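Subgroup meeting minutes
Present: P.N., E.W., G.H.
Scribe: E.W.

1. P.N. recapped why we're keeping a running log of single-chain structure predictions: easier to compare across weeks, and new members can see raw inputs and outputs side by side.
2. G.H. added today's entry (171 aa).
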Amino acid sequence: IDGMHLAEYALRDVINTERHCHAASVIVVDDVLPSTVEQAGRGRVGAAKNGAWAGDVYKIIDVLRDHRPDLAVIEVDTTPTGTLLVLLPDPQNRTLADQYEDLVPSLVVADPQEPPTWTFLRTRAVDPAALLQSEVWTVLRHARSMERQDAVASIRGVLELNGLLSHGSAS
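Output recorded in log:
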């Protein structure tokens, strides 16, 4: 998902994408870790100077964690503006769709944005090389042929084993 660079659009894209997923699907969201206030703005003003614009997509990270604890939400320290992996999607879950209209007002905030420190410092993000080398990809591939309950248990197990679920709890 790499579109409008605004939290409400990115959240809507995640909701609509999840409807077509399997437990072993991976939803990838780009531009979630701005490194400056200018990059985190709802407009490109100022961000164009340094070539990167993330917008306020970072806001969906905590929305997903707070409203969908069943998902595995992993921030990845990619250049220039970070990546988010959303694992364990459930096409039957309507929580975010049902709450969308209530969530939007908290997402749409006038600039200048005040992103949390963890976005700039990337304290919750995993190293992309370590993520790529982890066993999670093999488990995801095998989980495609499993029933949902077994796939979720298998994927969650490898995420825990590789320490990939602990990153989101740090502030």
